């Protein structure tokens, strides 16, 4: 008899690597992947946070200390995963990221640019350069890169964040074309607000941090909802994952009327109260600051 054996979607039973898995969206990805029967390497700059996540997993997980801004640490992470899994991972989620905002271009400071782009952009570049060859050799699975709605619609006083996330979108779009027909897929997640620590940790000036935390509280999705929706979209082979209605509306406005979008963002910026702190006083998190 001819039997029909369907292959499970890639997020089920996956051997997964998640960066920034010690909190928020990364932790929710790790928990959901484990719930779907996978094994998860939980990487974070804070080993303690990664270990906390592993304790929450339904199945076997591994905690690894890894600063994604450091290429050699990402390469070590790939070696660790390959050894534990006995081969290439199925799913790699380049999620680690930090918040930065509250100061306009010209007063941000190069240290802050380097710090934010080192994690938010180079971290994802390190992840893609290191893991994509492994995935291609295996000919299955894929990458989920975590960008932001800021990647397609720049908000004022968030220069380094916008630039990093736009880079992650562009990298993901490049990959999507390059991976076409290989059996390896890529999705890029572009949320607006998700209820996590991103506005508290990181380098966000006081008023902007407060505003972001309020918007997160009022309009934010839970990280669990975002993780489930993103993995489902990844399984369907969707490149863009734009989970929230406000993100979809911003996407549309930016695409249809880009100049009007820029004028609207400028008007909003003029209505915002000024941040008193110069760039040197941007708040710095204990675990992620350098
Ligand atoms: N929360 C939101 O509203 C929101 C919206 C859009 C995009 N995002 C993106 O989602 C991703 C996850 O952020 P989150 O909201 O869960 O924040 P979070 O602060 O709750 O979690 C981020 C995790 O990344 C880790 N991390 C920080 N620097 C690192 C580094 N150099 N190497 C490895 N790990 C590092 C932190 O220790 C933390 O555990 C980020 O890329 C963020 O930019 C978040």
UniProtKB/TrEMBL annotation:
Keyword Heme assigned: no
UniProt keyword annotations, A-Z: Oxidoreductase
GO molecular function, one term: oxidoreductase activity
One annotated Gene Ontology cellular component of this protein: membrane
Pfam families (UniProt xref): adh_short
Keyword Protein biosynthesis: no
InterPro entries referenced in this protein's UniProt entry, alphabetically: NAD(P)-bd_dom_sf (IPR036291), Sc_DH/Rdtase_CS (IPR020904), SDR_fam (IPR002347)
Family matches, as PANTHER family: DEHYDROGENASE/REDUCTASE SDR FAMILY MEMBER 7B, DEHYDROGENASE_REDUCTASE SDR FAMILY MEMBER 7B
Family stated for the protein in its record: Belongs to the short-chain dehydrogenases/reductases (SDR) family.
Protein name: Short-subunit dehydrogenase
